[in-house]
Design a protein that fits this description.
Largest sheet: 7 strands, antiparallel
Distance between the termini: 38 Å
Oligomer: single chain
Length: about 575
């Protein structure tokens, strides 16, 4: 079996004394401050860019924003903004030309990771005076490095001390005009220049009281949030649309921070029950870290970072480690014996299988749903009523809010633990797991409607949505995606739109009257009557068999779509199409 490096997270509950809680909250506040600092810089740049684009749109069309809504159609407004954006970007390219030349000079003079300075290519005839002067200076420094290395070191240091402030000042000026987007390194450099200023001038003179990486992680999170929003708005990001970043509040934002482990000395586990972080101290773990410590002592794991976060009434440390582990190149004997298992996901039960995972219990083909949210609904309603009766800003209200958060946290923990158990059972119990590609956003959409067109059966649909969201089907699929790679099995996702619930599993005819509210499926053509979930899982099994026989070839890999994936999944026996030893019930 091949040995590969995988990134795994080990989550531990911390036993933190009151003094330690104060330290963790201080670092979480520093990360939140870093996020807000970077968010303000990026927001100012975006607003400046947007103002210039509005001015360009006004110049092109001669219409104000209000007049555009009345005169132009949506397609015309989109084309207008694209034209205005192209004008602004062309102007930005002209403004950033000097910055590009100056930053290239800084990088070549620094020549990090390279033994010698490379002057680069000589500027062309149409290059500006700045490019020619900087190239001549690099040629002079390169000659000095060969002739007098000691003098070159001093000259190089002086050149960098002169160039770096110019680059930073130019980036700041262009960002203020909306022509340059500051990256993580730019934001870090800007904060280092301003961190010792007084609070009134935007500085953070308290930064020495916390680990510096806590502030830098907040800056990195802000940059990631902006990238996700911009890529989602441009249609380059899959999934649900990402909203615009917002400032993090002390009362509503999650308390968390991330510390890297670059030299493998910041974070370490002295024993099975303690986690030591340089600058924060040593914390006792509620559960044992024996598994991770054993891998580290054998040289099979290295800690890369730790994320400390508060969940409800507890603090958790998520230790991210690079683990060298063996990944099976083919399913095990038990997985090959079970072969392909189709799985119909729902709210109650959580899953209905085409065949049981345990051969000794041939009648057990269902996996029950835990429904932690429904079980805690009564206690949660009482806690929320108690919270609503408290005066805002009072100590009693803060206590009631902590109790509500504790209930929500316990519900999330129970749901996550149950899904981890189920996903591992499926990943280790079958060679191929076939799932339906459910559109959970559409399935759980509100049926309330509008005032002009109110919805029907709103209360029933709301109860259905709550039960479906309480099961965590999206999280189950996410866990199966990576656990099937770990345990040698394959996750096969059917085409979206496959009629599994309304089609008869015997004759294949559609029954449009089969709705999710009906427990039994009745075929008007052949007279088949059986459970609706059993009919759906038979259809999933047949569709998976057809897809596997048609498209799945020998090889190793996972597929999210059996008909279009370029890397077909493992076939169960390694010799051809899926060879099944078991057939679905009925």
């Amino acid at each position: 079996m091949p040995v590969v490096e995988v990134v795994r997270a080990y989550r531990f509950a911390l036993d933190v004394p009151p003094a330690g809680i104060e330290v963790l909250e201080r670092h979480a506040g520093a990360a939140r401050w870093g996020f807000n600092y970077a968010h303000q810089q990026l927001l100012d740049r975006y607003q400046a860019y947007d103002a210039r684009r509005e001015a360009a749109a006004l110049t092109v069309s001669g219409l104000s924003p209000e007049e555009r809504l009345d005169v132009l159609s949506k397609a015309e407004r989109t084309a207008l903004y694209r034209q205005a954006g192209a004008r602004v970007r062309a102007e930005n390219a002209r403004w950033c030309a000097d910055l590009k030349v100056l930053d290239e000079h800084r990088k070549r003079v620094a020549h990090k990771g390279k033994p010698a300075l490379d002057p680069g290519e000589e500027p062309g005839p149409d290059a500006g005076n700045l490019a020619r002067d900087l190239y001549a200076r690099r040629v002079e420094l390169a000659a000095l490095q060969c002739a007098a290395p000691g003098t070159y070191s001093a000259e190089r240091k002086a050149e960098l001390e002169q160039v770096r402030p110019r680059v930073q000042a130019l980036k700041t000026d262009l960002a203020a005009r909306g022509a340059y987007r500051l990256g993580v390194m730019d934001l870090n450099a800007r904060w280092r220049l301003e961190r010792d200023l007084p609070r009134e001038e935007g500085g953070s003179p308290w930064w020495r009281e916390v680990h510096i990486d806590a502030i830098l992680c907040g800056i990195a999170r802000a940059d990631t949030a902006w990238k996700n929003w911009l890529s989602s708005a441009a249609g380059k990001r899959r999934g649900r649309r990402v909203g615009a970043p917002r400032f993090k509040s002390k009362r509503t934002a999650r308390h968390s921070f991330t510390l890297p482990n670059p030299d493998r000395a910041v974070i370490h586990l002295p024993d099975y029950r303690h986690l030591s972080v340089r600058g924060l101290g040593t914390f006792r773990l509620h559960d044992t870290a024996k598994r991770l410590v054993g891998l580290m002592r054998c040289g099979q794991a290295e800690i890369t970072s730790v994320t400390v976060a508060r969940g409800g009434h507890r603090w958790y440390a998520s230790v991210l480690a690079t683990v060298r582990q063996t990944v099976p190149d083919r399913p095990s004997e038990r997985q090959r014996a079970n072969g392909l298992i189709a799985c119909d996901l729902g709210s109650q039960p959580l899953a209905v299988l085409s065949s049981p995972l345990d051969i000794t219990d041939p009648d057990r083909r269902t996996i029950a749903s835990l429904k932690p949210g429904r079980n805690a609904a009564h206690h949660l309603a009482r806690a929320q009523r108690r919270l609503a009766r408290c005066a805002k800003g009072s100590r009693r209200r803060r206590k009631a809010a902590r109790h509500v958060a504790k209930i929500h946290h316990n519900v999330a923990q129970q749901r996550a633990g149950h899904l981890h158990v189920v996903s591992k059972r499926l990943a280790t119990g079958a060679a191929v797991i076939a799932l339906e590609d459910l559109d959970l956003v559409a399935l759980t959409a509100s049926a309330k409607g509008t005032a002009e067109e109110p919805g029907t059966n709103v209360r029933v649909r709301a109860r259905f949505n709550r039960n479906l969201l309480d099961t965590g089907l999206g999280e189950l699929r996410r866990q199966l995606t990576y656990k099937t790679r770990w345990y040698g099995s394959t996750l096969l996702i059917l085409e979206r739109g496959e009629a599994t619930s309304t089609k008869c599993s015997r004759c294949g005819e559609r029954n449009p009257n089969s709705t999710p509210g009906k427990a039994r499926f009745t075929c008007p053509h052949c007279g088949l009557v059986l459970s609706r979930r059993d009919n759906a899982v038979r259809n999933i099994y047949k569709a998976a068999r057809r897809a596997a026989t048609r498209s799945v070839a020998p090889g190793r890999g996972d597929t999210q779509n059996a008909r279009r994936d370029k890397n077909p999944p493992h076939t169960g026996n390694g010799d051809g199409p899926l060879s099944m030893k078991r057939t679905p019930p009925g």
